[in-house]
Request: fold
Amino acid sequence: MSTSPNIRIAVPFFMVRDMEASLIFYVEKLGFSITNKWIPREKVEWCWLQRDEVSIMLQEPRSHERIDRQGQKGSGVSICFQCMDALALYHEFSVKGIEIKEPFVGNNMWVVAFKDPDGYQLDFESPTDVPEETKYSDWHTATSG
Reply:
């Protein structure tokens, strides 16, 4: 019997309303790469994206499949990416035009939070010893001078 872990990774799988808009967001703005894709009719309908050691999958439903367009987009879904330096990603993503809430410390982690084009909450987090509930602007001012 093997002693190595059997289940090794969970990959978030998002049904998206507009694959092209989602690929622009995840690839061009967040820096993910397409590592696998399915193009049955001259358009990407499913893909596997990766950045560093994190993967996600996106799929645009076919015309006969439906996404609830009446409900709030992304309702109840939050993906937490555990990082070495979430604040570096905050600066990287901000330069690319991502609207990001001010980073803060929660649960001993810097939290950089924003939503993707389908309303899914994305949290990029990294460990810190900065006091709980500290806002980035307060911490940056205190450490800059």
The mean pLDDT is 89. The first helix runs from residue 19 to 29.
